[in-house]
């Protein structure tokens, strides 16, 4: 019988890391850093593959929050954001522009920043660039701090 979880290694490995990184970067809670460190411990020779997978998953998760903000702004253009964190995030994005998304990796403010960027009309390309750079740098620093960079 075909065992799809075994084939995809959904309990871990790069696919599990991608899924965990994606979900951790949405409005759902999660910790992709622990998953990355675990995978690095299991397969240290795959550090750059794991970095790429975690960065891609986390960036796409951040872009899902951007997409929600973009959609909300178009669906309900007359309404403002009700959550105080989201209003502060819109203010930051308005003040600093798309480079504010370099901080999208930060806990608590990162997800609202991505949502606010979509709401504020930050384009997809700049959002992808700055979200990806910020999240990629965070993972590089994490891998370096773990001593796994070779």
Overview of this protein structure:
- It contains 7 helices and no strands.
- The model is unreliable at 1-8 (pLDDT under 50).
- Helix 4 (47-75) packs antiparallel against helix 7 (124-146).
- The N and C termini lie far apart (40 Å).
- The chain is mainly alpha-helical and 150 residues long.
- It has one domain (4-146).
List key phrases describing it.
150 residues; mainly alpha; 7 helices; disordered N terminus
> What is the overall pLDDT average?
83
Query: Tally the helices: what do you get?
Result: 7
Per the principal axes of the C-alpha atoms, what is the gross shape? elongated
Structural class designation: mainly alpha
Number of domains: 1
Rg is: 16 Å
What is the terminal-to-terminal distance? 40 Å
Task: State which percent range the strand residues make up.
Answer: under 5%
Short description:
This protein has 150 residues and is mostly helical.
Question: What is the fold's blueprint, element by element?
Answer:
Elements (H helix, E strand, L loop, with lengths): L3 H5 L4 H12 L7 H11 L4 H29 L8 H13 L13 H11 L3 H23 L4
């Amino acid at each position: 019988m075909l065992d799809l979880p075994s084939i995809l290694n959904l309990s871990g490995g790069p696919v599990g890391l991608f899924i965990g990184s994606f979900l951790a970067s949405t409005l759902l809670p999660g910790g992709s850093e622990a998953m990355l460190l675990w995978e690095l411990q299991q397969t240290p020779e795959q550090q750059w593959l794991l970095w790429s997978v975690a960065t891609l998953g986390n960036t796409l998760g951040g872009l899902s929050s951007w997409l929600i903000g973009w959609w909300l702004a178009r669906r309900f253009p007359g309404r403002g954001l009700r959550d105080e964190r989201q209003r502060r995030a819109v203010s930051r994005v308005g003040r600093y522009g798309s480079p504010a998304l370099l901080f999208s990796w930060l806990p608590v403010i990162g997800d609202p920043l991505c949502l606010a960027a979509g709401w504020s009309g930050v384009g997809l390309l700049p959002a992808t660039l700055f979200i990806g750079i910020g999240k990629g740098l965070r993972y590089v620093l994490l891998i370096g701090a773990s001593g796994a960079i070779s």
